[in-house]
Design a protein that fits this description.
Keywords: Nucleus
Shape: elongated
Organism: Kingdonia uniflora
CATH class of the largest domain: Mainly Alpha
Helix content: 55-70%
CATH architecture of the largest domain: Up-down Bundle
Subcellular location: Nucleus
Number of domains: 2
Number of strands: 2
Largest sheet: 2 strands, antiparallel
CATH topology of the largest domain: Growth Hormone, Chain: A
GO cellular component, one term: nucleus
Pfam families: RNA_pol_Rpb4
Length: 120
Amino acid sequence: MFLIKNEYFKGSQFLKAKYLMNCEVSLILDRKYEQLQQMSDDPSNQVSQVFEKSLQYVKRFSRYTNPDAVRQLCVLGNLCPLTVEEATLIVLSIKTRGRSHEDEDISKMLDDLNLIKKFE
């Protein structure tokens, strides 16, 4: 049983939960941390120790730090394209926005995602 926002959740309720990568959690917690800092007029007002430790953990074990790369990876993971051509058609920003990826890099991402699928 877990307590989240004053509500108790039991194990069966987590069966419908969506999994997040550490890099996604890091982005979420970073935004929340910034919001908490902006809302606080008192500089001595700090976030909880659990929040701070959680943020440190996901930052330490996050392999991806670029928000665009995280979004692209999540889209690829959700849609499971089989070829580089299919991936570039689905996620146009892989080739067009910011740091575009070479076909070899995209192929490596797809291979990594396919390897993960094999272990399911």
